[in-house]
Write a structure and sequence with these properties.
The complex is a heterodimer of chains A (523) and B (357). Chain A is an alpha+beta fold. Chain A has helices at 7-13, 19-25, 35-56, 90-96, 117-129, 193-203, 244-253, 259-266, 272-282, 295-307, 323-333, 390-397, 442-494, 498-512, and strands at residues 62-69, 74-80, 133-138, 145-153, 158-167, 176-184, 208-212, 218-221, 339-344, 348-350, 353-363, 369-370, 372-377, 380-382, 414-415, 417-425. Chain A has four domains: 19-221, 2-Layer Sandwich (Heat Shock Protein 90), CATH 3.30.565.10; 239-307, Helicase, Ruva Protein, domain 3, CATH 1.10.8.50; 323-330 and 341-457, Ribosomal Protein S5, domain 2 (2-Layer Sandwich); 464-512. In chain A, 37% of the residues lie in helices and 19% in strands. With 357 residues, chain B is α/β, with parallel strands linked by helices. Helices cover 42% and strands 18% of the residues of chain B. Chain B is built from 13 helices and 17 strands. In chain B, the strands form six sheets. Chain B has a six-stranded mixed β-sheet, with helices on both faces. Chain B has a three-stranded antiparallel β-sheet with strand order 9-8-11, with no helix packed on it. A two-stranded antiparallel sheet of chain B has the order 1-4. Chain B is globular. The chains are: A alpha+beta (523), B alpha/beta (357). At the A-B interface, helix 13 and helix 14 of A face helix 1, strand 4, helix 2 and helix 4 of B.
Chain lengths: 523, 357
């Protein structure tokens, strides 16, 4: 006989789970699905964090990455930057609390978006090895270095400080942060740390990255530009891109005293007139207090916001790599390339969110095989889910035969070619939380295709020039091959010296290789 | 200086002149394609029109042929200077070599050097025979004729069963005695054997020439010389089909592929003695006819359109062939008896002058 269970019993079993506990069970959602990827993700989160910190503080980044095997599958990963450093009280929260950060609540182009990244890496390492993460940070020349050893209390999603000291240490010269983690993983070169750093160097031409890998060799990815890019500006959400939950939260948090002023203050592109129109369509008084709205009123408001014609969001808030900077980067990383071209499109908008597409094509690298695709989102290389997303879709849908590459219908083109695509946006729509592929919204795919076509045209004119040069060379070889026989025959026919005739023909050859061929010379 | 040597030398100098003036070296060659072949009603011969093309050295499509043409020209000059002949096959092997450091040859096949010889013929207005290039012997002759060839005296009446093989170059043959009333040219070797064994040439006092299919240049030149130098009528005897009739037409008017030498090797006065389609019905050879194939009819229709077949007699014969869909071989006459051809058919046709023009 089964004992009957009461609602009270169930209530005693039900408890809140923290976000840390959730991710503890769902590591794959953050990208830590296998040992190879886990090692990469730890490096990636730390480097992305460092680059964001430097850029926001207006510091040209100098980053050192060391990955060392410390026995079996254990790796010690350390990443050191010359960023602004972190004030002592903030350090535990930034590294020891998931979803803590300044990036989630605002709309501004940045590498991380949710504030999950670095603390997820800390949590993951802790789960694998039980060891704390070590952090050194210094905010100025004459300041102390704050040293922490941290774990995350996954039940409360709170940092647990194992050790804290303030040191006089020469480790960090002026300012910067160093993080050191112990992790169980697997190292590989392809689509691993090496590729990630190489591509990061391409999309961040202003960063210098020094890397010592498990093999003990040091690779330096130098900077090709000595200037930080134009800083990305924070923008307010656009009415066309807002969702119910966000709107609900904004209504609760706003300081505005009326619905009209809420709309004009908290959103971009809404003026007093369109704010009034929205209220009218939603059937809500314009003077009503924003946080007094009921659920069904919020629904009506949201629907009205989609109906009213407003201007697109401001688009100068985005910071692209830049056409010439992108080109220099690619030329630096692929010195063997015969040709590099880049295209930066004008900014465009999807669902009320501004974005900008950049494309680079590198020719003459490797074999005649399906092209290599490098995908970037807000300067971060996307290494996994290589077959998915807007970028690959756009490349496959482009007719590359028109630009001189081989392609079977609906596939990637073939050739000794690398195609690099970067999407910069105040909010990049990823397919999943592990941020590995960009969602193929029609406007995004269309913009990528236009950029690819632009770059394709430049590739095609290079290739036809190359073909012409190849033809010229073949022509020259043919004439030079026949010249001695012609000279000999002419010498026999005329009695003149063969060597002299041959010399004259050869000197004419260079002059005549440009003559167009025609007819077949048949009698 | 020999005329041929002079012409070859002139060709070399004009190309050298181009080179010295910084021009793209070129040679001008009359076009030999059908579009430039014209039937001259006055001379009753095929001849080349005025169209010419330039072959340049600095043109990838021409360059190799340009080089090959000069190699053949230089080779011919050395033949002329040394006063010797050689076969076109020997020439091909003599000039074949590979370019240093490559697998490419000056010539890969004889089929590349043969047309170059014809190019030189039309370009310099000389005959291949004058360039001292020979081809395989083809054709046999018998009759009451004595000739001198490279110092030897040969009597065409005393060569037993074989007859005399006609060389590719007959220009230098000297006729010592020609005793004949006409020349009978027969297309088939078997037919030649029959008439030779029956001593047809002795009985009818003629010269008998077997061409063994399409007449070679040597045979055609020999026929022309006998007609021109001794005023002998020439009768041509072929199968009754479009190919046989075209053999006759080549002997009489020249060929399309060698239109440039028609005037020097064709015989416009030649007449066609047989076999005609009418003969099949006249001599009751219906048992021996062959059903014409589709290609035969197609070729017959082409002949109908040629200007030099526009005579009513020919139009009637060809149309009869198309209408009945039949053809016949010379050998069909043997159905009336083995000697019917030599004792009845040919003598009667000649006596009654039953020829097609």
């Amino acid at each position: 006989m089964t004992e009957e269970k009461t609602a009270e019993y169930f209530a005693s079993q039900q408890k809140e789970i923290s976000v840390s506990q959730f991710f503890e069970k769902n590591k794959h959602l953050l990208g830590f699905d296998n040992p190879t990827k886990a090692l990469l993700m730890v490096v990636k989160e730390a480097v992305d964090n460092s680059l964001d910190a430097c850029e926001e503080a207006g510091i040209i980044p100098d980053i050192e990455v060391v990955v060392k095997n410390v026995g079996d599958d254990n790796y010690k990963v350390s990443v050191k930057d010359n960023g602004p450093g972190i004030v002592k009280t903030q350090i535990p929260k930034i590294f020891g609390k998931l979803l803590y950060g300044s990036k989630f609540h605002r709309l501004k182009q940045s590498r991380g978006q949710q504030g999950i990244g670095i603390s997820a890496a800390v949590l993951f390492c802790q789960l694998m090895t039980g060891k704390p993460t070590k952090i050194w940070s210094k905010t100025g020349k004459n300041k102390k270095t704050h040293y922490f050893e941290l774990l995350i209390n996954s039940r409360d999603n709170e940092p647990e400080i194992i050790k804290q000291e303030d040191l006089d240490s020469p480790l960090i010269k002026e300012h910067g942060t160093k993080i050191e983690m112990l992790i169980i993983g697997r190292y590989r070169r392809k689509r691993g740390i090496d590729d990630y750093l190489k591509q990061t160097s391409i999309s961040n031409p202003f960063a210098k990255i020094k890397y010592r890998g498990p093999d003990g060799k040091t690779i330096i990815f130098p900077r090709t530009v000595n200037k930080l890019p134009k800083a990305a500006k924070e923008i307010k959400p656009h009415p066309y891109g807002v969702e119910f939950g966000v709107l609900d939260r904004m209504l609760k948090e706003t300081k505005a005293k009326s619905l009209v002023s809420f709309l004009t203050r908290e959103f971009s592109s809404i003026g007093t007139k369109s704010a009034g129109d929205i209220c009218k369509i939603a059937g809500i008084k314009r003077s009503v207090l924003p946080n007094s709205l009921k659920r069904n009123e919020i629904k009506k408001l949201l629907a009205a916001m989609q109906k009213v014609k407003v201007q697109r969001p401001p688009i100068d808030c985005i910071s692209p790599i830049g056409e010439s900077e992108f080109k220099k980067s690619l030329e630096k990383e692929y010195p063997e390339a015969e040709f590099v071209t880049t295209v930066t499109r004008e900014p465009a908008v999807y669902r009320g969110t501004p974005f900008q597409i950049e494309v680079g094509i590198v020719y003459g690298v490797g074999e005649d095989k399906p092209v290599d695709v490098l995908r970037f989102a807000n300067r971060v290389p996307l290494l996994y889910q290589a077959g998915a997303g807007a970028i690959v879709e756009a490349i496959k849908e482009t007719d590359w035969k028109r630009y001189g590459l081989k392609q079977s219908l609906g596939n990637l083109p073939s050739g000794p070619v690398i195609i690099a695509v970067h999407m910069a946006s105040s909010w990049v729509p990823f397919i999943s939380e592990s941020k590995e592929a960009i969602a193929p919204y029609p406007n995004i795919v269309k913009e990528i295709k236009l950029a690819l076509q632009d770059a394709g045209r430049k590739l095609s004119s290079f290739l036809s020039g190359k073909r012409r040069a190849g033809q010229q060379k073949r022509r020259l070889q043919i004439f030079e091959r026949y010249a001695p026989e012609v000279a000999r025959a002419l010498s026999e026919l005329t009695g003149k010296k063969q060597k002299e005739i041959e010399k004259k023909i050869l000197s004419l050859t260079r002059k005549n290789i440009k003559i167009e061929d025609s007819g077949d010379g048949n009698g | 200086m020999d005329d041929v040597i002079k012409k070859l030398n002139k060709l070399g100098l004009s190309i050298l002149n181009d080179i010295e003036n910084g021009k793209n070296p070129s040679m001008e060659i009359p076009i030999r394609s059908l579009s430039n072949v014209i039937y001259d009603k006055k001379t009753k011969q095929l001849t080349l029109g005025e169209k010419k093309l330039k072959r340049h050295f600095f043109n990838v499509a021409h360059s190799k042929k340009f080089m090959q043409t000069l190699l053949v020209a230089a080779f011919c000059k050395s033949l002329a200077e040394e006063g010797i002949h050689t076969s076109i096959r020997d020439m091909y092997y003599n000039l074949k070599r590979s370019f240093p450091g490559t697998k490419e040859n000056t010539f890969d096949e004889q089929s590349e050097s043969d047309p170059i010889i014809v190019d030189l013929e039309v370009m310099l207005d000389v005959l291949r025979e004058q360039l001292r290039l020979t081809t395989d012997r083809k054709g046999i002759v018998a009759g009451n004729v004595i000739i001198k060839d490279r110092g030897d005296t040969i009597n065409w009446a005393k060569l037993g069963s074989g007859g005399w093989s006609i060389p590719s170059t007959v220009e230098e043959i000297e006729f010592k005695k020609v005793d004949a009333d006409f020349v009978l040219v027969i297309e088939k070797n078997a037919g030649f054997e029959r008439l030779h064994e029956d001593k047809f040439w002795k009985k009818e006092n003629c010269i008998l020439i077997g061409t063994g299919g399409q007449a070679a240049r040597g045979a055609r030149l020999l026929i022309q010389r006998l007609s021109r130098e001794f005023g002998l009528p020439v009768y041509v005897f072929t199968d009754s089909d479009p190919y046989g009739w075209y053999i006759y037409s080549v002997i009489k008017s020249g060929s399309m592929s060698l239109a440039h030498v028609s005037d020097r090797i064709s015989t416009p006065s030649a007449k066609f003695i047989g076999l005609t389609i009418s003969d099949i019905y006249k001599f009751d050879l219906k048992r021996c006819i062959i059903k014409a194939r589709e290609v035969d009819i197609k070729r017959a229709k082409e002949l109908l359109n040629y200007e030099w077949f526009q005579k009513p007699e020919w139009q009637k014969e060809i149309n009869l062939m198309i209408e009945k869909g039949v053809k016949a071989e010379i050998e069909a006459l043997s159905n009336r008896g083995l000697r019917f051809m030599s004792e009845t058919y040919l003598p009667e046709k000649i006596k009654n002058e039953e020829f097609l023009p």
